[in-house]
Amino acid sequence: MNIRTPYLLFIGDASDPLSIKMAKSAADWSPEKCVGELAMPGCSVSTGLPRLSIEDAVERGAKSLVLGFANSGGTIDEKWLPTILHALNLGMDIVSGLHDKLEEFSPLKEAASRLQRQLINIRHPKEKFRTANGVKRTGKRLLTVGTDCSVGKMYTSLSLTKALRDNGVDATFRATGQCGILVSGSGIAIDCVVADFISGAAESLSPNAPASHWDIIEGQGSLSHPAFAGVSLGLLHGSQPDALVVCHALNRTHMRGLPHQAFPTLQDTIAMNEMQARLTNPSAKVIGVSLNSSSVSEEEALSVCAAISRETGLPCIDPMRHELTPILEALV
Amino acid sequence: MNIRTPYLLFIGDASDPLSIKMAKSAADWSPEKCVGELAMPGCSVSTGLPRLSIEDAVERGAKSLVLGFANSGGTIDEKWLPTILHALNLGMDIVSGLHDKLEEFSPLKEAASRLQRQLINIRHPKEKFRTANGVKRTGKRLLTVGTDCSVGKMYTSLSLTKALRDNGVDATFRATGQCGILVSGSGIAIDCVVADFISGAAESLSPNAPASHWDIIEGQGSLSHPAFAGVSLGLLHGSQPDALVVCHALNRTHMRGLPHQAFPTLQDTIAMNEMQARLTNPSAKVIGVSLNSSSVSEEEALSVCAAISRETGLPCIDPMRHELTPILEALV
Predict the structure, then answer these.
(1) Is A72 a residue whose pLDDT tops 90?
(2) CB contact set of A124 (below 8 Å; sequence gap of 6+)
(3) Alpha helices, DSSP H only, in A71-171?
(4) Cα dihedral sign for B154, B157, B160, B161?
(5) What CA–CA distance (Å, rounded) separates B132 from A261?
């Protein structure tokens, strides 16, 4: 993939902060690659970057318009086509992390071809995968898993990778979703792989490595989510993690997108992930809890982390607020 | 799909009886649609149908050459291209249940186009699926699950559907793999669906139905198979089964294709499937065990079934040898 930078982050008319996670990830983890955000009337959320018009962005050097919003089906709404076409006309490539392919829309295909622009679908793997073989690989692996979707698995993985490197440990972040791929420049969007090859793709994502090397693998979905548990399980088996970190967001009342679906407990999430992980790595163990505490005060966050730590017997921190030391210590 | 019958079943140079399950399924469940089998030097297995040349088959009216073998990656070996081209030249369509698409091979694409023949990839869904919503549907559902791949889930499902209908129960077989689709003429090859949509596709496969109607859904893979558990879990969640039948093959020493991977116990398989199924249907229950006892004598089969029944507290039968009555009774 040759994604031209800097980006203009298109967030549409989003009103749910979780729905712009693609844009927010780039703004948070690669701000130096972003000139600003493009929002439409009705938009009530923000990446925190300056709000620009396409013209402003071009003037500031923007080379790619990143479709920075997401929805459950990963579709591109036709109402955004004029905006996307305008960006193409003004010289930008288009980067999408949605299921729908950009070239499926003939006006985009035609304009990109005529103007010699790139339409980049980072979610669509180009490789052919093989089915998994379950054979244990060398090197060490940590996988983030979750009580739900969008609870902070990618942020936790990126934070852990950075903290390990800062401590002199050889570690590699392995992206499994469009946001992680946008931030890190490589990876496999595991939810876009054909079902038969989920575990095989996960095996290829973290190949044999030196004994002391850590792959920090971004988890996807949740074993307790009725729509995505299959993806989570295939990724878990193929990753063969030695260590698991359970990610959880405070104050969720139901599973993401499913008002009728109750939330699992942390204890159940820990037990189920350990049990399933041991199919391909008998020594797999949950070594910590990563809490997304953004819905409460600093003080309350500390007290909730302490309570979770007592309840689970595991270190619990919010990687966006606290030092990661307790989890790093549990790792080594 | 408009698959022209009768079929000539191509089994290549297979030596593993399980690898020709596509051909064997058609021979066993739709013999009236098959003229015979086509085998190459080295082939040491058979569907039981007469062995014919392509010329013989054409003379007997064959309209489609069915690629009746399978392998773990679902690939088409280039060494079969001359045979497939010969069948096209003599007037046949080609039907494949492999991952590789027939038209990816340019000589096939060119010949089919020139000769106006169909290249049918029954494993490749043409629909766009949505992600699952986990909302409970009306009607009743039974899903076959397994200790492993290729243990008899499709045969059990077809047998159960037939037995229910013979007993005046309104029942529909729902195919989830290429063999079931070939036999029944419709269905979704669930292992070919993009990972994000496994459960959503499974939800669409068995839609709302009258309260007394049973969908008998063909299971895939096994929660204990490192390569395919994600597919099995997504199918389990989307199917929302009221009843589960665990399928098991006697005398397997390891998981299919993975010599290093130990076999799960029946008790563990029952417990794990019930636990996972209850995420989307809290009353899901394993109601019986279906044993593939083809590796032992009639007498031994009866005694093993009795032992399993004592051990699990569930009816246990081999649907290819015994009456299905004990399982039907457990259903109603």
Answers:
(1) no
(2) A101, A189, A192
(3) 81-89, 106-115, 153-166
(4) negative
(5) 12
Instruction: Identify which of A99, A193, A233 has the shortest CB distance to residue B229.
Output: A233
Interface contact flag, B195 A234, Cβ < 8 Å = yes
- Asked if the model's pLDDT at residue A99 lies above 90, the reply is no
Evaluate whether A186 touches A193 at the Cβ level (below 8 Å).
no
- C-alpha angle with apex B71: B67 to B77, nearest 5 degrees? 60
pLDDT of res. A286: 98
| B interface test, pick of A194, A255, A256, A274 with most B CB neighbours within 10 Å | A194
Identity of the residue numbered B97 = G
Name the 3-class secondary structure at A12: strand
* pLDDT band, residue B185 (cuts 50/70/90): confident
- For domain A140-331, say whether CATH 3.40.80.10 is its number: no
Distance from CA of B90 to the nearest CA of A (A): 33
Residue B70 has what pLDDT?
A: 83
Q: Answer whether A193 sits within 8 Å of B191, measured CB to CB.
A: no
**ipTM of the complex, rounded to two decimals:** 0.90
To 10 degrees, the CA torsion angle through B245, B250, B254, B257? -80
| Residue corresponding to tokens 């636990």 | B275
Q: Chain A within 8 Å of B261 (Cβ-Cβ)?
A: yes
Residue intervals of chain B classified under CATH 3.40.50.720 are: 7-121
Say how far apart CA A34 and CA B121 lie, in whole Å.
44
Residue type, A114: R
SS3 assignment, position B193: coil
B262 touches chain A (CB under 8 A): no
Give CA–CA dist B115/B94, Å, rounded.
12
Chain A residues touching residue B237 (CB < 8 angstroms)? 226-227, 229-230
Which class is domain B7-121?
alpha beta
Reply yes or no on whether the pLDDT at B73 is more than 80: no
Decide if B224 contacts B147 (C-beta within 8 A): yes
B131 chain-A contacts, CB cut-off 8 A: 72-73, 227-228, 257
Helix (H/G/I), strand (E/B), else coil: B30: coil
- Chain A contact for B134, CB < 8 A? yes
C-alpha–C-alpha distance, residues A188 and A180, integer Å: 9
Distance CA A238, CA A279 (A): 10
pLDDT of residue B206: 98
Model confidence pLDDT, tens digit, residues A264-299: 999 999 999 999 999 999 999 999 999 999 999 999
Alpha helices per DSSP H over chain B: 21-29, 54-59, 81-89, 106-115, 153-166, 178-184, 198-205, 229-239, 266-277, 298-312, 325-331
Q: Number of CB pairs < 8 Å for A and B?
A: 137
Identify the pLDDT of residue B330: 94
Pairing of strands B214-217, B140-146: parallel
Q: What tokens appear for B186 in the block?
A: 């419709």
What CA–CA distance (Å, rounded) separates A305 from A291?
7
Q: Any idea how long chain A is?
A: 332
Binned at pLDDT 50, 70 and 90, residue B126 comes out as confident
Q: Where in chain B is the domain with CATH 3.40.50.300?
A: 140-331
Confidence of residue A93 (pLDDT cuts 50, 70, 90): very high
Three-class secondary structure assignment of B207-263: CCCCCCCEEEECCCCCCCCCCCHHHHHHHHHHHCCCEEEEEEECCCCCCCCCCCCCC
Inter-chain residue contact B224 with A279, CB threshold 8 Å = yes
| pLDDT, position A127 | 85
* Farthest-apart Cα atoms in chain A, separation: 62
